[in-house]
Amino acid sequence: MRELSGKVAVVTGAASGIGRALAVRFAAEGMSLMLADVDPGGLAETARLAGDTKVLTQIADVSDEESVRHLADRAFGELGAVHLLCNNAGVYQGGHLWTRTAEDFTWLLGVNLWGVLHGVAAFVPRMIEQDTEGHIVNTVSVAGLLAGPRAGGYAVSKYAALAASQALAHDLIATGSKLRVTALCPGAVRTRINRSARVRPFHLAVAPTLDDLDQQGRVDAAVDKGIEPSRVADMVVDAVHEERFLLLTHPEHETDLRRQTEILLAGGLPAL
Known about the structure:
This protein has nine helices and seven strands.
């Protein structure tokens, strides 16, 4: 997809952070937008920031299959096509792996993994039928490549999202599709992912533990030092143009990944 102008992009998790930055950048490229999130106020603000381009917004919970299918129906029905799908919605929960509850995993996997799977199921078959160039960007995380301490549940969900992205990319090539895939693996970015609890469903809420509170300060500090979401959006546009599968936002993570692979193959575990 060398040319984005006149095409249609769908972005989930568009009310803030990377999702908002993607929407604004795609609008600047001349794309029409279908934006989704569970935060109506933030979603409306993103639509305003997108300027004069055609923008549709919809409240959608990506962990719910019907909600995503309804999003797809509206996107194809009212915009006529979808050329760029960004399964971007994501949530974070820290803490040691043994402290994570069933509710934590239901929430994390529901958004971070099932959000991707539901997006693929609802959009990709119809994108294939269009028989046009197109692209799917799944927001994974560097945690989907480099699992570290104090974020086991999050890493599990993101490793699975990376596996889904790889499998999708292979399937599309094997079947001769014109669609391509990018697995976006951000490091620290100045978003509100450290405040994910604000969108946690009531029925999955649990009381915070000392483990949670200890981790919160670490994540807050990392986010404060992160790069701007607009830089990530610029990288995504380049990756779509270049049909690049793996997109790391921080060059040092390439070195970290090589080092981890070498140590794992030698039978060890890298210190993080």
